[in-house]
Batch of 2 targets.
Target 1
Amino acid sequence: MLPVESKDLECLVKLNSILILDLDCWGASYLRSILAHGSANITTKQGNKALPPELWLDIIELVEHYIDENTYKPVYGVAITPGSPNGSPNGNGTESSLVCNVLEEWTKCGDLTDGNRINAYDRCLHKPSYKLDPEKDWIDKDEKYYFDITKTVQEDSYSILVSHLRFEGDFLFRKIRVLDMIARCEDTVTSVIILVPDLLTLNIASL
């Protein structure tokens, strides 16, 4: 699992690769980015009052500390909206964004019982248009595809400004595999069997 960078976007949208979005980290990183330009950028609705940056940082750290578990969403890129010529974090125009749909339903990765199905699932996470091949993937002929996506932007989609990908805290990740889905997007504690090069099998429990 690797953080998404702006240079990755075109390929990710073309493939509609499954990504993992850390909503809590995104929000905290956004606030930290604003505070880097001064706490005067965050004011109350009434009275236009601002807090000292040190106090804001303490608040953010407390929030991050007391979050029991981060909120993760499996998503996939469907479009890149172009920015205006003057679009930039400090400009007056609009900025380019990555539009991601949420993957609402999928065959639970924790239910996979053999290495061949896990490998096939990994290929589908990278490229959802991948066609399962019983002979090549060593899976059952009646194996159902693990999830469906749509290239139409949905109402609950997320629009992520490209500049946000430069935040100090990484919040959007690519190269997602079965174990990443189990650890971050599935609530159940389960064991997954994976094959290792020496042909031994290991049982790995998700935390």
Target 2
Amino acid sequence: MSSSLRRGVLAAAAIAFSVASLAACGAGNDAQTLEIKPDNAATSVGNIKIQNAIVITQPDLESTGPAAISATFFNSGTTAETLESITLPGTGKEAELKPAKGGSLSIPAGGSLVLGGKDNATAMLPSSREAVRDGNAQKVTFTFSKTGDVSLRAFVVPAKHYFAEWGPTEVPAAPGGSASPSGSPSGSPSGSPAGTESPAAGETPGGHESPGTPTDAASASATAGAGAGRLSPRRTAVRKGGTSWEVPPFAFVVRGRLTARTCSPGRGP
């Protein structure tokens, strides 16, 4: 065997040995990473394992509505188990359990049960502010049909942000809020305000009399409010060349000029 071939064999053997030694450092049954526990409450007794246990209160501190208990249960046994009750030791409070629509509170063998959240089973604590306080680690006891009592400490958090969709479905309004008026006032004011008279012909609403013999410009300004092509609601006096003209009611006025028939000089309509 040549020297170059021997060097190649030795290099390959060295690489294989290093790979084998590194593989021996892999995670085993007693790896340190297995000793790390998550922040959320979790425990196991017998075939039952509980994960993500948490108590979720109302989002408003002033609200006295119910709180929800959320958790996930796993059954590693060969027979099904049923969640029978959830209590808070030392408070005298017990959660009201309700299965999901068309489901039950049974944990099948090799299966799981989710408590809390949309379309899942629920556990509600009435008058939660009397039993739990946000930020505490509340002791909670779960009772199963075969395993019995399993206790742990679950964090108490308000139903905000991520926990909103897992919190209580009933969120009453906070007390002390101002009530909004209901309905609308009935009826409407009838008639015109007392003591107010309609201006007579030849007077303006402000109480100032208009000149008895207005000029053409004054007549045009008096009828400008009616607009071009609209009906004039009252008689309008027009003076031109020393002769008084009276415009009949509802005569058309276009740019200050009469477009309907008028009366003869000195005569009424």
